[in-house]
Design a protein that fits this description.
The protein is α/β, with parallel strands linked by helices. The protein contains 15 helices and 14 strands. Strand 4 and strand 5 form a beta hairpin.
């Protein structure tokens, strides 16, 4: 069964084509790395969408890069069309795009709709109802879903919402202190996002760390970042709230921000509420603070060259991560493992070292050699032994595989529908 997965980030588009067996283990049984029965046939995507020099790439099953170029990609619709061309072009894995059994979307926010569902007019309407709190994500997903429905009417479209993983969060960690009507009528609550990534990494930790119950914190750090506290693989708290604009500072989004400051800014600047929200969601975050870039690679280079604003942006980012790390340790009553994933989490030794700095008394101690070692892939970076009697917290770098999670969820939904019929 061929499943195509579309993963649209705020400034990125990724796709992967999988060949999966028709049936598989339950999602709650743990996510193992792809076996010979789960084959990735192709992958590709676009980075830095909207910039003058977006990176477009694609590769085949053998892993060799078949395409890599720098070119302007103005929006996600253009990126999606490029993906279809790559898959069905000369040397591509498909003769026709309708060879796939389904297209799974790593959807972000459905408000009243969550979990894994078939894309339908009602699902699209639900996504549009909350587009104002996910302006960088929902509109491009809705456009992509409608485009695929028009061009491929015979191919099932499945939305796997990121909020689904966080339905296990207890009310004390998911409710805001707001009128009950806001919660019941308008669905105002802490929904949480990056669910596919936190699901993959937390379940992988269940396989790597044998202690039970297992108290873990997963740090998805990239252009968009969030922290998740998990107990035996289930989410019990997360840094993002009603919208992906909240929590940690993002590449160009402010993260947590006092809403009453908007009133002050409106009076001081003469800007409208909508203009200020646009500034918070597109001109703030790491890019806004540094005045250079929201990309950690650029920020680290600038900071090393003496750019004080770039260093401040990094420091604020790290402090926010440590804030949520500390809160998670208190909520969980201790910590057994911490995992770093995402573009920053997997590739920035400086960030990992800063997050875990001076936490030896909590059993958190990074191995500097392992942390800075060249190479990539899954690896342990924590100190295994210590002169203290305190138990060591397992520290891991785990490359996430959100697309594999969505492919399995899509496959399982189709299987459940066939069984129901």
């Amino acid at each position: 069964m061929k499943i195509l997965v579309a993963n649209l980030g705020s400034t990125s588009f990724k796709y992967r084509l999988f060949e999966l067996p028709h049936t598989g283990s339950s999602m709650t049984a743990g996510l193992r790395e792809a076996t010979s029965l789960e084959t990735e046939l192709a992958r590709g995507g676009v980075e830095r969408i909207g910039e003058a020099r977006s990176r477009v790439y694609a590769s085949c099953q053998a892993g060799a890069t078949a395409l890599e170029a720098l070119m302007p990609v103005p929006d996600h619709a253009v990126a999606l069309q490029a993906a279809l061309t790559q898959l069905t072009g000369e040397g591509g894995p498909l003769k026709r795009i309708d060879e796939v059994a389904a297209i799974g979307f790593k959807a972000v926010h459905g408000g009243r709709v969550s979990g894994v569902v078939r894309v339908s007019p009602d699902v699209l309407a639900a996504m549009e109802e909350v587009s104002q709190v996910a302006p960088a994500h929902n509109p491009p997903y809705v456009r992509a879903m409608r485009l695929m429905a028009e061009r491929l009417p015979g191919v099932p479209l499945v939305a796997a919402f990121e909020t689904g993983f966080h339905t296990t969060i207890p009310d004390r960690n998911s409710f805001y202190a707001v009128p009950t009507e806001w919660v019941e009528k308008y669905h105002v609550r802490r929904w949480g996002f990056h669910g596919a990534s936190h699901r993959f990494v937390s379940n992988r930790l269940l396989e790597l760390v044998q202690k039970r119950p297992l108290r873990t914190i997963t740090c998805h750090l990239g252009g968009s970042s969030s922290i998740c506290w998990t107990l035996d693989g289930q989410s019990v708290g997360t840094s993002m709230g009603m919208s992906p604009q909240s929590g940690l500072p993002q590449n160009n989004r402010a993260g947590d921000f006092d809403p009453f400051a908007l009133l002050h800014l409106a009076k001081a600047t003469g800007k409208s509420f909508e203009e200020l929200l646009a500034d918070l969601s597109a001109k703030s975050g790491l890019a806004g603070m540094s005045g250079t870039s929201g990309d950690m690679r650029d920020l680290e280079s600038a900071a090393a060259a003496g750019n004080a604003r770039a260093q401040l942006a990094i420091d604020v980012f790290v402090a926010s991560i440590r804030h949520w790390l500390g809160a998670g340790i208190v909520e969980l009553g201790g910590i057994d493992a911490i995992a770093f994933t995402g573009g920053i989490g997997e590739n920035s030794p400086l960030t990992r070292a800063a997050v875990t700095r001076d936490l030896t008394e909590l059993g958190i101690e990074i191995d500097s050699d392992a942390n800075t070692a060249t190479g990539s892939g899954e690896r342990q970076i924590g100190v295994f032994q210590s002169i203290t009697a305190r138990p060591r917290v397992a520290l891991w770098v785990i490359p996430t595989n959100e697309e594999l999670v969505v492919a399995r969820q899509t496959r399982d939904l189709l299987a459940a529908e066939m069984k129901g019929n």
